Amino acid sequence: MDNILKMSFAALFSAVVLAACGGNDETTPDSNANTENDAAENTETNEEAPSEEESDSMEEMDHSRMDHSSSGEVPEELADAQNPTYPVGSEAVMSANHMRGMDGAVAAIEGAYDTTVYMVTYTPAAGEEKVEDHKWVIHEEIENAGEQPYEQGDEVILEADHMEGMDGAAAVIDAAEDTTVYMVSYTDMETGEEVENHKWVTEDELSPVE
């Protein structure tokens, strides 16, 4: 009789142990699934939210491809300014901020011209990312430009070469202004680089040297 009780107890104990093991096996897949889902959600979140450094880099992309210096050649039809505020050979302080290293630099005036200057948004001819609110393109740097200046919203083709992919690119006029525009040489305030015959700076972006 004692043996029968012992065997029954052993059988009951084994059944309890097996049931416990079976319960652990059933919960494991759910736990793994939750872990995998959490990892996927974290990956999606990281992909959707660029870091602050990446955001700053995208904002600076506009003029990263800009040719600061130029040969100094200008369109044949571009008219010299008759009485510029800053004549060729004089100096002026720049307050332009459309390029790094420009604001506060002393510029030597290499050329002064009366024209219409435009701020434009364009898609580079090579299909690169759109460039918005680029400063500046002058009337004579637009394909088949007539005598009448363009207005905000007009669509044009650029012939300027200030930046990669600009020549031949389709653009939209964001703003237009009749003014004196200057070609300048200066020392980059951030890099110390000598910039020669930079195009363009408007008269509003210059002030007398004190």
TrEMBL record:
Annotated Basic and acidic residues bias: 60-70
Positions of region (Disordered): 24-83
PROSITE patterns for this protein: PROKAR_LIPOPROTEIN
Domain of life per record: Bacteria
Keyword hit for Signal: yes
Biased composition (Acidic residues): 38-59
Signal sequence region: 1-19
Keywords linked to the UniProt accession: Signal
Record keyword Signal present: yes
Domain DUF1541: 88-139, 152-203
Protein known as: DUF1541 domain-containing protein
Provenance organism: Alteribacillus persepolensis
